[in-house]
Amino acid sequence: MNKFKALLLLSFLSIGLVQAAHAAEEKNIEDYMTSLITKTPFEGRMLAIKIVRKTIGTIQRDPEIKQAVRKIYQDDPQLLMYAAELVAMEFKTIAIANNYWR
Description:
With 102 residues, this protein is mainly alpha-helical. It has five helices and no strands.
């Protein structure tokens, strides 16, 4: 069942890949990630969360579908863990870019 839920989540994300390609062509794209360099690990974590949120928002631009998906994953701890895993992967990249804030 967990593999099915992961596949379902991935299919929701992949549906919007075409939309993401079109979004990249839009003129008014916000540059929310001018640098991976942050002053503190906390700022790095907040950037990681923002990257994940913006990525999902870019892939799935339809607000009604986003709301429908939220209703599914808000009550499913496994899907929430997948989201946390995405943030952790982005945070790792940011930590490396910041030399682990040494």
